[in-house]
From TrEMBL:
Keyword annotations of the record: Hydrolase, Metal-binding, Zinc
InterPro entries from the UniProt entry: MBL_Glyoxalase_II, Metallo-B-lactamas, RibonucZ/Hydroxyglut_hydro
Descriptive protein name: Uncharacterized protein
Cofactors: Zn(2+)
Domain of life: Bacteria
GO molecular function, one term: metal ion binding
Pfam families with a match to the protein in the record: Lactamase_B
Organism, as annotated: Aeribacillus pallidus
Keyword Transmembrane helix: no
Length: 214
């Protein structure tokens, strides 16, 4: 399986297109610029099967309805953030976007707990990784040796925790208990910036040094 990273919108939020050898794909966090994203999908003759959200902040959801107008595919979100999709005061756009409220239609599939998720030939392990937001989900794809971490873990940094439902200690606990236990060579595909690996963050990330789970 292969992936493409496409930064979208003012915040250059990473949308990911994960593809298989049948030209089917899964979309992660289509945050903005729906026409641009649709053009990429058509150019590569890809058939989307689903949209998976790592969380429901406005910069990760803005192009959902544009995509669904072309392909009638389900959207997955954690239950703790299902109401955020239609509420600018929850998803942050009401505060950060100077009157440009971001709302999208309700999700089709609600994630209520950790476990496995199979969509076509794609098989994910779901990890609840709150701290940046209460319903943050990380999607681990063992076959591709990759985890889609959203705004939980970045190259050399971690997610901010000063937004609604954020909690710094909870975020660090999520990272240490759910992500750093993955194989060291696992590729981390974050919501902003470039890719990294678990071992690189274990060794060099200054925000993770000295944290104790006790």
């Amino acid at each position: 399986m292969k992936w493409m990273r496409i930064p979208l919108g003012l915040l250059q939020t990473n949308a990911y297109i994960l593809t298989n050898d049948k030209n089917e794909c899964i979309l992660f966090d289509p945050g903005d610029e729906g026409e641009k994203l649709i053009e990429v999908l058509r150019k590569h003759q890809l058939t989307p099967l689903a949209i998976l959200l790592t969380h429901a902040h406005f910069d990760h959801i803005g192009a959902i309805d544009d995509v669904r107008k072309v392909w009638n595919i389900p959207v997955y979100v954690h239950e703790k953030e299902q109401k955020w999709l239609g509420d600018p005061s929850l998803n942050g756009s009401g505060h950060f976007m100077n009157g440009k409220n971001v709302t999208v239609e309700e999700a089709d599939e609600i994630i209520r707990e950790e476990g496995s998720l199979t969509i076509g030939s794609f098989q994910f392990s779901l990890f609840e990784t709150p701290g940046h937001s209460p319903g943050s989900i990380s999607y681990y794809l063992e076959e591709a040796n990759a985890v889609f971490s959203g705004d939980v873990l970045f190259k050399g940094s971690i997610g901010r925790t000063d937004l609604l439902g954020g909690n710094h200690e909870e975020l660090l606990k999520s990272i240490h208990e759910k992500l750093l236990v993955l194989p060291e060579e696992t590729i981390v595909l974050p919501g902003h910036g470039s890719e990294t690996t678990i071992i690189e963050e274990m060794e060099t990330n200054p925000f993770l040094n000295g944290f104790s789970l006790s």
